């Protein structure tokens, strides 16, 4: 459902997505839309009150999208287009009729080899996503190990998968879940998300004390957080 709220002379339109799997509410802002995801128990009036309280922030985010020249582009998976990796937009080169399917990097180019004589966006995306999973598994575990030593907080288990609505989470049994798509973000952003989740092993919720802990180990964490907010829809 689409709702509207006034902010000065501007009108902010937003859509509502309810789910019985959600426990908390979240407002996502991108260049083209505002989406409110809430538990199914939230009433329309409660959602409107929440959006009213955040409309200044929503409007500011929309202005940022209008002004920004993002280095990351939404993938089309066509030859000559761009694919994101570690905060860079790499030019996609497709090689067909090869013995094996593979992905390799060469300078600012990402080369995808296909067995078939023809290429399709679905094929390229599948191979690219598989490669991202392999790369993220190795990189994330290395970064978690290094940051864990600094915090003296070690997760019991690390799970990396294609999460749909979050970059990471920390469970009550000290398991860290990370979104494989984070590998598309700069290294500093990856470190921020890992630090964020590791801090949750000690402090639940987003209290002042929690953010002070994050800031202690990453003074510029707000810059990394802002990068994710600006590029969220593009890299997820």
Could you explain how this protein is built, in words?
By secondary structure, this protein is of the alpha/beta class. It folds into two domains: 2-67, no CATH class; 82-235, Zincin-like (2-Layer Sandwich). The chain is built from five helices and eleven strands; from the N terminus they run E-E-E-E-H-E-E-E-E-H-E-E-E-H-H-H. The protein has helices at residues 44-67, 121-151, 187-200, 208-217, 221-235; strands at residues 2-7, 10-19, 26-29, 34-39, 82-85, 88-95, 102-106, 109-113, 157-161, 168-170, 175-179. It has a four-stranded mixed beta sheet, covered by helices on one side. The chain has a four-stranded mixed beta sheet with strand order 5-6-8-7, with helices on one face. A hairpin with a 2-residue loop joins strand 1 (2-7) and strand 2. Helix 2 (121-151) packs across helix 3. It is globular and about 60 Å long.
């Amino acid at each position: 459902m689409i709702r509207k709220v006034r902010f000065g002379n501007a009108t902010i339109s937003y859509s509502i997505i309810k789910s019985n799997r959600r426990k908390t509410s979240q407002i996502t802002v991108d260049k083209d839309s505002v989406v409110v995801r809430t538990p199914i128990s939230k009433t329309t009036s409660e959602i409107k009150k929440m959006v009213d309280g955040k409309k200044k922030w929503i409007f500011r985010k929309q202005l940022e999208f209008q002004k920004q020249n993002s280095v990351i582009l939404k993938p089309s998976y066509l030859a000559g287009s761009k694919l994101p990796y570690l905060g860079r937009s790499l030019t996609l080169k497709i090689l067909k009729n090869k013995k094996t399917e593979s992905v390799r990097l060469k300078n600012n180019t990402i080369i995808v080899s296909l067995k078939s004589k023809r290429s399709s966006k679905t094929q390229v995306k599948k191979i690219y996503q598989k490669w991202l999973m392999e790369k993220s598994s190795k990189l994330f575990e290395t970064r978690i190990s290094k940051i864990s030593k600094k915090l003296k907080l070690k997760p019991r288990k690390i799970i990396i998968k294609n999460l749909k609505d979050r970059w990471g989470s920390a469970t009550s049994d000290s398991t860290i879940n990370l979104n494989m798509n984070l590998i598309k973000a700069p290294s500093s952003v990856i470190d921020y998300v890992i630090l964020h989740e590791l801090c949750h092993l000690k402090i639940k919720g987003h209290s002042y004390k929690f953010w002070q802990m994050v800031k202690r180990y990453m003074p510029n964490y707000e810059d990394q957080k802002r990068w994710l907010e600006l590029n969220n829809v593009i890299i997820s």
